[in-house]
Amino acid sequence: MSPEEVARRLGWHKTKLYRIERGESRLILDDLEELLELYGVRSPERESLFQLGRDAWKRGWWLAYRDLYQGESFFVMENDAAKIGFYAPNLLPGLLQTEDYARCLIRAAHPDMADDAIQRQVQVRMERQAILTRRKPPRILAVMDEGVLRRTVGGETTYKKQLEHLLELGKRPNVDLHVIPFQAGEHMGQEGQFTLFEFPDPEDPPVAYQEGLFGDVYVEDVADMSRYMLAAEKSLDAALSKAETVAFIERLAKETR
């Protein structure tokens, strides 16, 4: 098979395969599994290659929590991205949440989960936020619906601390917060919550990510990505400016006891 044929059959952008084969892009275990399956690699070679793959990722802090997730694609992209765009009509993005706020959301989403398991989920979310304070943090763009900011998650105290946390985050040069007010009416971003990852190397195409009740979806196809990019553009067009958003959050915080 030609590289073009492999990329087509896996639903990848061809530059992704080129960069993996040249050793210029990290090979995550999910992608390794897809390649081995397509190439018909069987035991014992398969196990040997998987062990090499696992050894290559031992430095990833998230491996301590691998029992909570299906693969590490999300962590790798979040860690490597130069820009992360959140388009949030329903939920406040995890990278922006306080610990108490995150705990309340996780408990609501998993009402049958044991307390210790919930705590581990919270720990993962807090550890992810380390990328915001590293020497070269990614640029964060969060476009949130007004309803997300008005929802009193965890009671008045937790909610107010979350608003105050957003105001602190908004002071960072790499963080841009925007709210879409109710008065903006309908807009394209209402169709669903998604995240856009953009990478430092222009040869690495952007990836869209959507999380749902029945699993995660990663989108790299050029035609599909164009729709996500358009939804991102239209969402930002409907949103308040950064300064207007700060003023909006300050008003909400003052209204909260």
UniProtKB/TrEMBL annotation:
Residues 1-46 form the HTH cro/C1-type domain. InterPro entries: Cro/C1-type_HTH, DUF5753. It holds the Pfam family HTH_31. It comes from the Bacteria. It comes from Nocardiopsis rhodophaea. The lineage of its organism: Bacteria, Bacillati, Actinomycetota, Actinomycetes, Streptosporangiales. This is Helix-turn-helix transcriptional regulator.
